[in-house]
Protein 1
Amino acid sequence: MSVVSRLSSMKARHLLPEQDQREIALHYVIGVLCVLACLAALIVMASDRAARGWAREIRAEVTVQVRPTGLESGSVAAARAAEVLAGVKGVGQVTALEPQKAKDLIKPWLGDAILDDLPIPNLVSVRLDDKTPATTKALTDALISHDIDASIDDHSVWMKDVEQSALTIRLISIGIFFIIFSATAAVVGFATRAGLTARANIVEVLSLCGATDLFIAQRFQYRFARMAFESGLLGAAIAAGVMAIIKATGSSQSFALALPFSWLDLLILLPCPFLVALIAAVTARIVTLRLLGGKG
Amino acid sequence: MAQINEKNRLANTVTGFLPGDDAVVAFDNVSLGYDAASEADFILKSLSFQLPAGSFHFLTGPSGAGKTSLLKMIYLAQAPTSGRISLFGEAVDNGDRAQVARLRSKLGIVFQEFRLLEHLNVFDNAALPLFVHGQNFRQYRDDVTELLNWVGLKNQLQAMPHVLSGGEKQRLAIARAVVTRPTLILADEPTGNIDYAMGLRIMRLFVELNRLGATVLIATHDESLVRASGMPVLELKDGQISRRDLNTTVGGRL
């Protein structure tokens, strides 16, 4: 390489001086925002998975309360109902809850004293087929056809609550995600203004050399996009680390139940640095063109 | 007021130029006032003149006469308070940013305060207009190196501006202004920070570029340099412009 070919280091990025103190702070702020945005994205994924899981579990379970008729005992009626329900298409596993087991379940709340005087319901737990679950009507029809007096609880009341809660969590997480990205855009816009003011002399020289507003805007666009990408990459890495720690340490079982992270969720972090860079580039371009009075 | 304007217009219409379509710069009844309440307080009053293509003029006048303001209006950094300016036969609209950029790309400007970019080295500062116009390093490296050699900066190609003396900065600013071989060269005190010998050398560069077809307008206090050149002079005084021809042959001693 000749001496002459080493003369110039001028590339698009070098038309603006290397970063100053303000930009280090901006790096930090964008990085933090990106961590929060990435965590919000991970929570969206996990809450969605949790909601689907809860809904699937609730849909797959049906509880049947059997009322014995005539001289038939409760446990016999429950056993007969279980046998009938097991024959319905779309039913997986059927278990008649033994009276003693039902008492054991109630005992912690009511104690031993009055337990014997209480009418313990005769319950049958029905696990539906995952792919082609039996409908409540099919189960009811089957029981009626065998003269079994029973009521079926398909948990639809709980289902609505669970779905509503899951939807709320998802919407809140998505909202937070977008609020954080809009905050990133605002921060970049503010920084672009500051950068443009701080480098007014450079902008003026470029302009007097015949540079178009678009040319100048592209310098700022490139600068802020690169900075945002680097910060975004760091932010995504930190968010991935946080998720990995939560998942690897197991955390508490209730936490894993509420937010069941999957390693595949990490894939959603991949576009985050690009997205934040895109936001920064577009914001820097718009702000620069507007400040220079261009029509963009 | 209309009568006063007309009177001023006639008084400030510089005669002796070659009016016509080949005017690179044309001022038509142009006035400029910074926060001035009345026309009497304007810094430049109803100026009408033209700079024909290929002409060479000095712009002189006492401090505060408005030389820099006049140059600013020509390089479109300052809009006139009233009147019309045309560059290269095109009426100027300072609000049209695309037009401003296009017209400026035909200009080479030397600023009194240099306006070098401190984070770029000498070579990159000189090559800046070429880079801005989309040329790549391979296209311009020989021309820029040769030009910097010519202005005496061949040993400082990679130096940063802050290590240069005032004279070296001036020469670099001049190199940057002429590197694109502009159609119109505007210089504000281009020899203010350099010695007489280097001043003459720089003037020879301007004359040479003028011979190659560039129109040149140089604002200066340096009467000796003006006399040495023998080029026509536009003199600004009391907001008005007048032409002064020197009794020397064209090109003078340069």
Protein 2
Amino acid sequence: MFDWRWDFTFEILPRLIVATGNTLLAAGLGYAIAVVLGLVFALAQRTPFRPLTMVVREAVEFIRSTPLVLQIFFVFYVGPQFGIRLSPWTAGMIAIGLHYAAYLSEVYRGGLESVPKGQWEAAKSLNLSTARTYFRVILPQALPPSLAGMGNYLVGIFKDTPMLSVIGVAELMHTANAIGSETYRFLEPFTLVGIIFLCISLPTAALIRVFETWVRRKLGLG
Amino acid sequence: MSYFEFLGQYGDRIASGTLITMALTVLSALLAVAIAVAAGLMRMAPNMAVRGFATVYIEIFRGTSLLVQLYWIFFVLPLFGITLEKFTAGFVAVGMNLGAYGAELVRGAILSVPKGQWEAALALNMSPAKRMIRVILPQAVLIMLPSWGNLLIELLKGTALVALISVADLMFQVKQINGTTFMSAESFGTALIIYYVLARFMITPFMRWLERVMMRKMGRA
């Protein structure tokens, strides 16, 4: 194909594979933050304290309708203005974690709303505390319907990590860019990045579907 | 410098960036809709080659990042003799990416049109094209419009990435302003609010309006 150089390809491949590790690490860390924080957002919207629910609701809407790349810049550059210095990794993880927490909170919300009302009433009549009701009765039933959405966003966060390159996180896209500006060859690095993304996201998406049916079968949901 | 002085000084640049962002959004939305309908229909074609082509397109664009696609179109495509101006490269990348997501919406909506509608059209001896255009698609549009609302917000957010190939959109302008003034909270904060306003007070109401118009047209209001 055109002037694709295989020797160059094999020369840069190790660097790209190392960077893939960073991409996976960023996606994993960001997702871990999002999974926990998303649940906090979802539960906060169910408290009886109106001002809190409204503020969280608006914040989630705000985060969901503004670009992630802008949020990354915001978190990274606004801190120093007030004397807080964040490393690119910290800022990136906060931004991407918050962004996906907003998305995941919507997924959890759907799951929580799908738990039949009778379950609440039953827990109440058994005199379970609110915390106990959530952890032992409601959440175990709310999670399976949320799994599909959670899986989609796992792949989503992975595909959004290249945006971290804008503040200098040395992930895949950042490395490909660096190789491009060192060697003036963009064809191989950028194409390889695309191929690496495909090689990870397509099987992951398939695995998630398998896992989802497995969980549903385990729980006797068909 | 107070915030009002900041707005006074940089207001026009922010406004011109916002206009570029809106233009990008409209152009890439048109492209995305066209691609989504074409790829969504091709996905269901009886011909294996056509179906395969659409599947490969959708999987590639959904399986990689928009940023990767944007860089590829802007930096690599010229090596194949296709040089796009950066504004064009920007909206083409966003449109092709979101078009792939939209194709799945189109396919899902068409499949969820009740079977009786297909059979009725067949019984009336409509040609396949006529059946699709007169009977199936209008009902599919009604089914998929709410999802398109979300997709268009994703698209608006996607256009912010074109700043990275120096298209002078809102994101690019505030990045430049931040670079000269170091007023990060003001510059990036303003842009965040503008994106939010565009999404919630322009795209969402527009889609609601479109849903109502379509409902009325279909006699379901």
